Amino acid sequence: MRRFTTIKDIAHALGISVATVSRALRNAYDVSSQTKQLVIEMAAKMNYKPNFNATGLVKRSTHKIGVIIPAITNYYFSTVITGIQEIAQQNDYHLILYITNDSEELEKKIVKDLSVSSMDGLLACICSPSDSCMHFQELIEDGLPVVFFDRVPDEIKVSKVMQDDYNGAYMAVKHLIDRGYQNIAHITGPKGGFLTENRLQGYLNALLDHGLSAKDDWIVYSGFSQKEGETDIETLFHGKDAVPDAIFAVNDRKAIGAIVALKRKNIKVGQEVGVIGFTNDPICEIITPTLSTVAEPAYEIGIKCCQMLIKHITKSNFKGNEVVLPGELIIRESTLRA
After folding, report:
1. Distances (CA, A) of 96 to 80, 85, 93, 102
2. Residue 168: its pLDDT value, please?
3. Closest by alpha carbon to 304, among 198, 100, 149?
4. Cα–Cα distances in Å, from 22 out to 38, 127, 196, 251?
5. Bridge partners for 324 per DSSP
6. Calpha distance 326→165 (Å, rounded)
7. CB proximity list for 106: less than 8 A, separation 6 or greater
8. How many Å apart are CA 227 and CA 260, to the nearest integer?
């Protein structure tokens, strides 16, 4: 089978990095004119046939954007997708959706199988730990524009759009304290995630600033589902002499799981144990008692991350940055004491 020349072959021949070759082919602002010329000449000499946008050699666009998300069935991600789709349609791009089901292994397989020739750019919400995302770095080095949103990797320095996890968590815990709750537990997501750690830090600092101490066994790591929220309550309350009088959940699904589990134990939610979540899923107003939460700007995140990606695709000198959008405290019955 015929072997086609790759940008790695060009990099090896010139003794420079793959990333530099990729940026040179895209006419990036941070590569010198001399280096760009060397790359173009070597590419022509080696009969390199680019299969994605390589400004200066070929201009071909698929007008497709890949989107990687952990789930599609919950309110937050479906709302983000709505925002992404609105901007994509306005700019004549089609979406290719990939669902990881919160599986790190599946995420790595999806990214490994992606072809840079099949899309112009990628939007990604990760489920891998923040320090285990080099599979995305390889795509970026191959020249694919990537923007991360919501759950983002700390180690990879590209454009990111996220909600203010730290201040949202701080606001939620401060609200519990202002309502008179003193023994506040935190049921959170997988350990090591950027979102998980930021919300944890907001929880810890809110306690510290108000003269309350955090207990290690009152911080429970697990997944993001309602079922795991129920299991976390069993961990906190089963056979314990001292139990929390309030729960801050990393998202609404876990908070709803906490309410279900507390009611199963005949514990009055709000009056005996307060519960607050993070998202503002519509089910917050349906469940009894209604759920206090921090509203995330999901639609705005979708709009902003897609706008940034299209700028990366269409403007070779667009530097990009990190965008952090604020949340809003929504007070309902689950944190109202008699």
Report:
1. 14, 11, 10, 18
2. 98
3. 149
4. 13, 27, 33, 39
5. 162
6. 8
7. 100
8. 9
> In the chain, which residues have pLDDT < 50?
1-2, 52-59
pLDDT of residue 131: 65
Residue 39 near residue 17 (C-beta atoms within 8 A): no
Identify the pLDDT of residue 194: 87
pLDDT at 2 (0 to 100): 39
Answer whether 46's CB lies under 8 Å from 9's CB: yes
Residues linked to residue 96 through DSSP beta bridges, in sequence order: 66
The residue assigned the tokens 């080099």 is: 134
Instruction: Provide the 3-class DSSP secondary structure of residue 136.
Output: helix
Residues 107-111: contacts with CB under 8 Å, at least 24 apart: 107/68, 107/135, 108/135, 110/68, 111/68, 111/135, 111/136, 111/138, 111/139
CA quadruple 167, 153, 321, 88: dihedral positive or negative? negative
Tokens of 236: 């906190």
Q: How many helices (H) and strands (E) does the chain have?
A: 11, 12
Q: pLDDT at position 59, please?
A: 45
Residue 65 · residue 121 · CB < 8 Å = yes
14-53: pLDDT as tens digits = 999 988 988 888 777 788 989 999 999 998 888 886 654 4
